Amino acid sequence: MKTEKQKMLSGELYDATDTELTEDRLHARKLIRTYNECHEGDPNKLKNILQKLIPNQGSNLNIQAPFYCDYGSNITIGEDVYFNFNCVILDVMEVKIGSRSMFGPSVQIYTATHPINHIERATGLEFAKPITIGEDVWVGGHAVVCPGVTFGDRIVVAAGSVVTKDVPDDIIVGGNPCKIISHLSE
Questions:
Q1: Residue in 27, 114, 142, 183 annotated catalytic
Q2: Which residues, 6+ apart, have CB-to-CB distance to 84 below 8 Å?
Q3: Is 183 considered catalytic here?
Q4: Using only C-alpha atoms, what is the Rg of the chain?
Q5: Which domains does the chain show, CATH number per domain?
Q6: Contact between residue 123 and residue 140 where contact means Cβ atoms under 8 Å apart
Q7: CA 108, CA 89: separation in Å to the nearest integer?
Q8: With a threshold of 0.90, does the pTM exceed it?
Q9: Residue 99 exposure: Cα atoms within 13 Å on the Cβ side
Q10: What is the per-residue pLDDT across 8-42, written as a single tens digit (0 to 9) for each?
């Protein structure tokens, strides 16, 4: 029989109030609180906190406080990635972010979702879909990336966009819901 954590990570319905998951989130929140409160402190201490929170990261990760996530352990980040102030990653399932990607203020990345059927939703169970963001992506401020979305490489997402579908390489997208604005040329 699968644990609730195993169900969560495989995209099945799971109980978020499970003791193991609650403890994992509490551990992440303690690290986040320390990071957010000490952000102007010793750079080595901050790097150490981020390494504990997001162990799967490349070099030169730069996250401006405040920053929030559910677990941190479900996030994989490439080299030279930047997050501006007030970003949120609900990493109930895997979030992969490619190298040299940048995120404006208040970008929200959500893997967590809930059943559409109201009876099933009333059980309190939830599920998640993974998110993959390619390399050299720029996501403008206040954009929302919805569960299950995959970005190609060299994407630009306009500020305030709500991305509900996959985006191929070399595209500028924007709007709510997000639509192709133009193709990037080399």
A1: 114
A2: 64, 102, 103, 104, 105, 106, 107, 141
A3: no
A4: 17
A5: 4-183 (2.160.10.10)
A6: no
A7: 6
A8: yes
A9: 4
A10: 999 999 999 999 999 999 999 999 999 999 877 78
